[in-house]
């Protein structure tokens, strides 16, 4: 392909522009790749950036400038590093949950908690056990949620990448999970923020419109809820019929 240096018109010819008569320049014919531009790779995947700086830089960039961040993600690389990033976020979130369960472990110091519908933790051993199993539960959640999101992304996207790209999006969108450091409201706010980041990441990964990416995320969230409600309704209906 040639591009006119004067008006920017693209043409298969390399001589004179058919529109304005300007000189045509030959475009770079090297094949396009999915690799990120030099210097745009997330710090977490840059071997030159040491830990924990690579973790902190990636966390800040993904939250503060998500569009620019996801444009620099190398979508076709192996997903081991993003999964490790996701696990670190999950462990931090589980630690904050364990911490607040320990803080609110008794009603003597917090007499209004039961009235607010917040049940304080009973039994430190159970809380610690949940903390150690949290990474395994997080991996299961990552696999299921990524698969569900990918299905809807493929239905709504015309220019698709593979499942690895969606998995990377979900991993790098997990950063708001550390908002669990704020009791009660932090986890909810972090979950909503993560969904917004997933939509932005899908838009960049699968070259979707922002609306289509948002619809894919909403459908992925709504599907398990609707399935649960459907099963519950069927169970209630079966119980009424059997009487």
Please describe what this structure looks like.
With 243 residues, the chain is mostly helical. It has one domain. 57% of the residues lie in helices and 3% in strands. The chain is built from seven helices and three strands. A three-stranded antiparallel sheet has the order 2-1-3, with no helix packed on it. A hairpin with a 5-residue loop joins β1 and β2 (10-11). α4 (124-156) packs across α5 (163-172), α4 packs across α7 (210-242) and α5 (163-172) runs antiparallel to α6. It is flat, with a radius of gyration of 24 Å. The protein starts with a strand and ends with a helix. The model is unreliable at 27-39 (pLDDT under 50).
Tell me briefly what this model is.
The chain has 243 residues and is mainly alpha-helical. 57% of the residues lie in helices and 3% in strands. It has a three-stranded antiparallel beta sheet with strand order 2-1-3, with no helix packed on it.
Strands ordered across the widest β-sheet: 2-1-3
Morphology: flat
Q: Give the count of helical stretches.
A: 7
Helix content: 55-70%
Q: H/E order of the elements?
A: EEEHHHHHHH
C-alpha-based Rg, rounded: 24 Å
Average residue pLDDT:
84
Domain tally: 1
Number of strands: 3
Q: In this structure, how is the largest beta sheet organized?
A: 3 strands, antiparallel
- Residue runs with pLDDT of under 50 for 5 or more positions: 27-39
The fraction of residues assigned to DSSP E strands is: under 5%
Q: What structural class is derived from the secondary structure elements?
A: mainly alpha
